[in-house]
User: Which sequence fits this backbone?
């Protein structure tokens, strides 16, 4: 991982290249995170790719409920020559959950972006096949958001047999 | 002293014994003879023979879904050898199989597929629900899974996560007993605890009939495909 | 030319053109869509492939997944940290120790706890045993797909031996819940070291026997050699790591590049292929078995004394004998069992080298006793994207062989 000063240098360069792209940087537990405005994500990823972070290890979503903006998408990049990792975070709200896709630069982002759409509802503009991947095609709702109930079968005990099946999480 | 007379069911073993003695003496005639022949030849011998041979040559279907599938593959292995019982011919096509071993978690997307495959199997067919995830919800009680009782009739549930191959073998042998016509006693019979069942009040019965947590289709109710 | 020279065979096949010829009535050739449905006899799980074929040649394949989606990540958010471990183990159901290791590594990063050295060595031993076991199942089922059915029984014989070792150390054959945050749950019993050494003596001979059975067989060679090769650059664009990338020539292995859990103390090599076709993938995985045996031998010989879990009582349960004498131990035990430890807010991504590639776990903690987000980066999920370009313009039988060599585990793909 680039250390804290390395991270600041990278952030400085990226800020100079694109106005208003880097919102903040974070360096904790030996992990470097760049928080990026959603519309600048492809440009930032391209510049990090040119710097050497050519491998997309993971693309996943996080729900930061109740903080706004609520839905975050994280890109874990890795530089295989220096064995360096850096993360890029983009946060969108549920009212406007759109981020430009990274599949042009990393074809391996295809399935992960579909999964983020399926589980969180973030739409990736420009994705060749924006459909649900894990849930059935006609499923309604985005399961991994924090306000989606866990669901499941209610457990029936003697005490709730008469009154109904009780509340389950 | 009063003598009580009661009619006994003709398939009672004492009646059968008397009829057998009479037949050997040549004393059994007419309708009783016909009935005796029917009972001893059809019910006793042929059906039993058929179900004995059925139970010894089941063709299970390869239906590995998740982790339990690996343990199911190891009953095909040599330590717990399913070929000892004649069940080693795993068939991939549902038309050729008669046992569906549901091994693994059944997700919402997979349940209609399983139901369709079960419908495509030909009668007589049985189903074993292997593992905790398909019998109940297992480790994961959430939106994505369906307990297998909800969409198909299951004969034997094997608990475990994943069940040891020996545990699955035990479930399979129980199913074989069931097929061969001598289903094992429930635990209440074995432990002399008959009479400890919980009796629902009429209100509870009505409510559980209205809105059951688990729908169980009666056996044999299959919309053919 | 020797029987192993497959190029003339391929040339003969390729000389048949698939140009649409007019059949006199204005007919043209059509592409056939074949659904290799979620239930199919190749025991790689419930994967659905929509293949578009022209005759026997595949033009496009679309994998459809989600048939064993279990909502593991959502369930993990409802459970305390140590209760997440059994849930997360069931993701990639052949490499359960790796799943637990990735998660424990992420939580240990967040908590900044030190894992004692004995625990690290024990973890390495179990991880490498799991790697061998996963490769055994892969070899058995792949040979089954290719038609070499008896390999299945030989490989599962080894698997039973390894599962006996797991049962010895933790009581369970699969999904053992052996790795905990801070170390392992229990020290190994007496006799474990001897049994592991015995296994390490036998395993290389057994692996040689498997090689003898398969590698001189002309059918296996013709099916695997030269089929569905893909270069390392292409694979890297898709995010593919693990034996697939190593077969294509790139010696990338997280155990050597970014060592975790004392892997830098062991001396082992990384098998690397040259062409990147199915035969190289098979050879790389087969050679990894020998390297794993070497690691286990070194770990078991050099097993240090010490605690098997971190001495930090706020994270790990105190030993039971302390509960009778120390009040603090009792309170710690109570807090840990009822509520579990709390992790300060933060995010961590911990990646390890699983049998299929880079297995990563992302944990977001929000200060409570339950994780706010757990995401497992599964290698098979990303490898499946590379399937379509790999099998384009290959035969259907080649696709079955490629799928076998890809080693997808649907539990990991669907989570």
Assistant:
């Amino acid at each position: 991982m680039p250390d804290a000063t390395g991270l600041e240098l990278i952030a400085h360069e990226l800020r100079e290249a694109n106005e208003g792209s880097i919102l903040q940087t974070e360096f904790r537990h030996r992990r470097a995170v760049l928080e990026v405005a959603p519309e600048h994500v492809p440009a930032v990823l391209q510049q990090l790719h040119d710097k050497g972070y050519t491998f997309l290890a993971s693309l996943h979503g996080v729900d930061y409920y109740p903080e706004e903006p609520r839905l975050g998408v994280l890109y874990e990049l890795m530089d295989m020559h220096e064995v360096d990792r850096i993360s890029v975070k983009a946060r969108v709200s549920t009212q406007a959950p759109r981020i430009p896709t990274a599949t042009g630069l990393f074809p391996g982002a295809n399935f992960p972006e579909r999964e983020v759409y399926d589980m969180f509802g973030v739409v990736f503009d420009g994705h060749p096949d924006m459909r649900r991947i894990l849930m059935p095609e006609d499923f309604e709702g985005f399961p991994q958001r924090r306000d989606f109930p866990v669901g499941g079968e209610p457990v029936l005990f003697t005490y709730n047999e008469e009154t109904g099946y009780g509340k389950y999480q | 002293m009063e003598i009580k007379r009661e009619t006994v069911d003709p398939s009672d073993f004492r009646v059968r014994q008397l009829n057998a003695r009479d037949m050997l003496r040549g004393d059994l005639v007419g309708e009783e003879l016909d009935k005796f022949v029917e009972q001893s030849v059809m019910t006793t011998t042929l059906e039993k023979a058929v179900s004995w041979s059925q139970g010894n040559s089941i063709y299970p279907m390869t239906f590995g879904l998740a982790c339990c599938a690996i343990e199911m593959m190891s009953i095909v292995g040599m330590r717990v050898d399913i070929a000892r019982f004649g069940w080693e011919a795993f068939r991939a096509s549902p038309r050729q199989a008669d046992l569906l071993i549901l091994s693994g978690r059944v997700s919402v997307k997979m349940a209609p597929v399983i139901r369709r495959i079960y419908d495509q199997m030909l009668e007589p067919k049985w189903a074993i629900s292997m593992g905790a995830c398909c019998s109940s919800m297992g480790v994961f009680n959430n939106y994505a899974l369906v307990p297998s009782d909800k969409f198909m009739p299951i004969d034997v549930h094997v608990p475990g996560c994943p069940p040891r191959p020996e545990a699955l073998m035990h479930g399979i042998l129980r199913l074989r007993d069931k097929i061969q016509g001598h289903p094992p006693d429930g635990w209440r019979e074995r432990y002399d605890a008959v009479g400890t069942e919980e009796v629902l009040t009429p209100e509870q019965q009505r409510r559980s009939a209205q809105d059951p947590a688990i729908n169980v289709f009666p056996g044999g109710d299959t919309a053919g495909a | 030319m020797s029987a192993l020279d497959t190029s003339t065979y391929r040339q003969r096949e390729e000389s048949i053109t698939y140009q649409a010829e007019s059949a006199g009535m204005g007919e043209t050739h059509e592409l056939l869509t074949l659904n290799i449905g979620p239930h199919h006899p190749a025991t790689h799980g419930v994967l659905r492939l929509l293949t578009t074929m022209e005759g026997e040649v595949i033009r496009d394949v679309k994998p459809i997944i989600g048939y064993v989606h279990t909502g593991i990540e959502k369930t993990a958010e409802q459970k305390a940290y140590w209760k997440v471990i059994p849930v997360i183990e069931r993701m990639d159901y052949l490499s359960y120790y790796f799943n637990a290791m990735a998660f424990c590594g992420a939580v240990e990063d967040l908590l900044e706890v030190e894992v004692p050295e004995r625990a690290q060595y024990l973890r390495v031993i179990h991880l490498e045993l799991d790697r061998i076991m996963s490769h055994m199942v892969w070899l058995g089922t792949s040979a089954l797909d290719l038609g070499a059915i008896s390999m299945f029984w030989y490989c599962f014989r080894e698997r039973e031996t390894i599962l006996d070792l797991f049962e010895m150390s933790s009581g369970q054959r699969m999904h053992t819940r052996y790795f905990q945050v801070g170390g392992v749950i229990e020290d190994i019993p007496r006799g474990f070291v001897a049994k592991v050494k015995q296994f390490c003596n036998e395993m290389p001979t057994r692996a040689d026997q498997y090689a003898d059975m398969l590698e001189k067989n002309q059918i296996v060679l013709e099916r695997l050699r030269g089929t569905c090769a893909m270069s390392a650059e292409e694979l890297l664009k898709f995010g593919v790591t693990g034996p697939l990338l190593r077969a294509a020539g790139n010696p990338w292995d997280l155990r050597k590049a970014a060592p975790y859990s004392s892997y830098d103390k062991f001396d082992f090599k990384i098998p690397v292929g040259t062409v990147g076709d199915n035969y190289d993938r098979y050879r790389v995985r087969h050679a990894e078995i020998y390297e794993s045996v070497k690691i286990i031998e070194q770990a078991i010989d050099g097993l240090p004394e010490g605690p098997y879990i971190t001495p930090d009582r706020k994270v790990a349960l105190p030993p039971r004998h302390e509960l009778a004498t120390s009040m603090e131990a009792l309170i710690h035990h109570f807090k840990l069992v009822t509520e579990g430890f709390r992790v300060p807010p933060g995010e961590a991504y911990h990646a390890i080298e699983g049998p299929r590639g880079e297995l990563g776990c992302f944990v977001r903690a929000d200060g409570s006793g339950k994780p706010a987000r757990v995401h497992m980066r599964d290698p098979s999920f990303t490898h499946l994207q590379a399937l379509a370009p790999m099998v384009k313009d290959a035969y259907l039988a080649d696709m079955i062989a490629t799928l076998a060599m890809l080693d997808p585990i649907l539990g990991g793909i669907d989570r």
Remarks:
- The two ends of chain B are 65 Å apart (CA to CA).
- The mean pLDDT of chain B is 80.
